[in-house]
Every structure is written in C-alpha cells, then in structure tokens.
Write a structure and sequence with these properties.
Length: 496
Amino acid sequence: MIRNTALGLAALAVMPRRVLAQMDMGSSGTSPALAAFQDPLRIPPVLTPVLRGKTQFYTITMRAALAKVHRDLPTTIIWGFDGLYPGPTIRATKGHPVVIRHVSRLPDTHQDGGSEMTMMYPAVHLHGAHVAPQDDGHPREALPPGTFRDYHYPNQQRGATLLYHDHSHGQTGMHVYHGLAGTYLIDDPEEQSLGLPQGDYDIPLMIQDRIFNSDGSFNYMLDSNTRETGMLGDTILVNGVVMPYFKVARRKYRFRIINASNARSYYLQLNSGAPFVQIGSDGGLLPKPMAKTLVELAPFQRADVVIDFSAYAAGTRIIVKNCESCVGCPDCSGPLTSVMRFDVDAAATDDSVVPDCLSSWEDLPIDAQTVTRQFILNRQTTANGTIWTINGQTFDMNNPPLVQVKHGDVERWKFVNLTGHRHPVHIHLIQFQVLDINGVPQDPSVHGWKDVLVAPPNGQITVAARFKGYTGKYLFHCHNLEHEDLGMMADYEIIP
C-alpha cells in the first residue's frame, strides 16, 4: 500500500486546475423561479429481493407516474423504474448473483423532443457492470411495449457505486431526462473490516439538472443548441428533489455521489471550506483516502466521499455548492450554484473510521508490445444539424465493430478530441486506468479505477484496460447523452 506518489503529485501540479475544461454551460431554457432548500432530501427505497439460494430476484416495472420535486411546482409526470424518480436502489453483494426482470409499461409513443412522435423502446444498461453481452442493455435488445427482459448480473467485481438507466437507440437522453435512472450498489464483505460509515449513514446522492415548465412538466428539447452542447438544465435536483435540505447527525457520513445529468459537469465544494474525504471513484475504493476541497464529476462519473459533521455545532447549515463559474473559489455564486444543504442536528454515537489504507492497487502491465489504439472524436454538420463521430463514423446498429480486442489482453486506448467540447467517454464492461492527459503522465492510483474518462477540448487522454471475462460485442460512447444519441458511439468486440 506504500507507493511513491511523486509522479502523481507532479502531474497534478502542472495540469490545468480544471482538467475537464470549460464549454458553454448555459442552460437550454428557463424554469420558473424556485427557492432553494424548501424540501427534504428523498432517499430512494432499497428493494427487497426474492431469494433463491445466493441469487437475488427482482421485478421492476418501467411506467409513467407523478413526482413532487419542489414545494412550489405542480407534480411532474415522470417515466420511472417502478414509477419512482429516481428509481429504487438495488443493494447487491459481491459474489451473489442478481436477476432483474425489467417490464415495460411505458407509453407506446412519445414526442421526440420536437414535433415528431416516436416509439418507446427502452433498453436497460447497468453502468459499470461486468456482465455478459446479452445482459449489458445494448439498444438492439430494446423492449417493445408490454414486454419484459431478464438481466443477469453475477456481481463478480469490486464493490462499487453503479447505476442503471435506459440505453435506447437515439433516445437515451430523452428517456433518462424523464426519470429512467436508479442506483445499484455492490457491497464487498471485505469492506466491513474497514469500519467505514454504513447503514443509515451510507447514502446515495444522484445529482441531475432539469428545466421545468410552469405546469411542472420536464422541458426537453432537441434543437440546434442542444445538439451541440447536450441538454443543460437550469435547476439542480438531488435524488429527484430540487435543491433539498438533509438533516445530519454530528458524525461521519458516507455519500455515494452520482452525476446522472445528460451533459453537465459538476464542481462540488462545501461552503464551510472543509474538505470532502474521497474514498472511491467509478470502480470502487481508492488505494487511500484523499482530502479534496473540490470534487469534479463529468456525466455519469461517481465519487464516494465521507463528510465528518462532528466538528459543527447543532444548528449549523452547510451548503454543497457547484462552482463551475469559478472553480475553487471560496464564494462562488450565481445560477446553478446551490446543490443541497446539510442541517447539522444533535450528536450521535459514531464508531466509524476512515483508515489510511482502503484497497490494494497494482498498475496494469504496459510495455513496448502493448497495443495502442487511437480514436478521433469529432463532429459533422449535416442538413439535419450537428452529428458526432468516432473515427469519422456515426453509430449504426448494423455497423461492424469498430475494433476487435483479444480476450485477456491489456491495451492502451488514446482518445483525441478535435472539438471544443469535453467528451465524457464510457467504455462498457471494463474498468480502466488513466495514463496521461494532454501528454502529462498520471499516477493511475490517484484517479482510481474508472469507467468514464474525460477527453479534454482540443486535447487527448490515454487509458489502459484489460479486456477479460467475456467475449462478444460491447459499446463505448460519449456520455453526453445527446452526443451519444447523435452518433458518438461504437461497438467494440472481444474475441477469443
């Protein structure tokens, strides 16, 4: 567990303060004015499975429902897993399989973000999961109205914060925007010995941005602006509540922070100036905890953090702020600044700890024989508007895989971004290590295991991964959901 971190510290020192860089983050519309901190945080229910041996069985129905997201807004029509926004939480255990039957009771058709009507064919992807191709939620296996599909998740991977969401062909952005996302946690029994906060003090926080109409409905549009930037809201929600408050005891809490926004990145800090203690990333625990006054999350990245409220007096109010307009400044203000508020209550017994060592780490073996592949991220202008490409191609389910990878091999994948937008790229099935950003070498252990990388504007990033466990076709794509829907996605294939 003792590592020489000089390389990582030197790299961080010379990197731009905002690795993700800045695109125009202005919202795509205007919601009614809504006061912050009027409603309590809603914690999605944890589903109870039917047990058959070690396997947990669930049935989840995707359907339209009503949700109350703010005191001063009428109820919002959502499309939700079990009619909830966000969906219910699945709590799995490493080594214990889960089978989820997803049933579609969604409307047969809906507007496509403009004036056209289109069929509703959802496909459910468990983001970050190590699963067989047929259980990965590929859009070619979408569900017609009134049907169901059983997804098998072996959970033979590190404990981690995952999320499940719709992955429809060309409609992921709209479907997720309307509510089709939920949290999936894999607990690793080995973590129990670490003494981290657990139970009622281990809480998922799913952050999203939305635009609302005056009647409470979501305002989703796919126009020339959102085709370029992705759908950017002007109102922040946590667990489906607009800028909520949450009463906390004077003790340590573990928060699983998930950026489930279509296109917006977040730059989170506490207005008290105290640090988050980050203990995990996309793929589970870091080797050791890191105190960070700023946590940066691109779409569908996750950060597992501990906040210790024991030093605050009862009655203290601490605001989680999003400081995208002035990264790292102590007094950021303006639109989309307030995320949520912690209201410190009475003291509570706390025997939890954050140990100095969390998880073992080993760099992937890289040498002169390691295959390096390059992927060019770019855009094209067509008569119908902007589309997005990987190596000059837009996604088509009939296209052959863009690359083939031999099972068990370690490869380097280099993403070169020729656009002025950041592109958060998700590679299905595997977790990877970050090797360099814009030519600056990285200590991979500082980033932890990742499944979403950020290709900086007019820059590049290189990652390494071992492709093992299954053979077959998997996707990789931009997780700006509108960029994904408009072509920045491709299949890759793992071959024997």
